[in-house]
Specification:
single chain; 119 residues; mainly alpha; 7 helices; 71% helix
Length: 119
């Protein structure tokens, strides 16, 4: 299934949809070039090209966008979570901490614009 961005989605969700569409185009091109490729799963192809599963690539992209927002803006964590498609800011905080090993607020205080304003 290809996720195509729509105008109703936030900027981050449109960007993520574009990334998925791009990755699926790479997959389709590979099939055209080598139809004898023995693997028939998306996971196998993404592992071959990127050494990561599609799920890991999506997680990396979400975390990168979250870090960018935390670093460059003063938007509340709740607003960033919503923009990235999370319905609950606490779920976003757990997701971020699981992948970065620090909370979003600690990340912002350490490296983000919050540090610049405090100093």
């Amino acid at each position: 299934m290809i996720i195509a961005p729509t105008s109703a989605q936030s900027g981050s969700n449109r960007m993520l949809g574009g990334v998925i569409v791009g990755l699926c185009q790479v997959e389709q091109q590979y099939y055209l070039e080598d139809p004898s490729f023995p693997c028939c799963s998306h996971t196998c192809i993404f592992l071959k090209f990127f050494n990561k599963t599609l799920s890991n690539l999506i997680t990396d992209r979400i975390i990168l966008e979250a870090k960018r927002e935390l670093y460059l803006t003063l938007k509340p964590v709740k607003a960033i979570a919503y923009d990235l498609g999370f319905t609950d800011e606490f779920h976003f905080s757990r997701y971020f901490k699981k992948n970065v090993n620090i909370s979003p607020q600690t990340f912002r205080d350490t490296v983000g614009s919050g540090k610049a304003l405090a100093g």
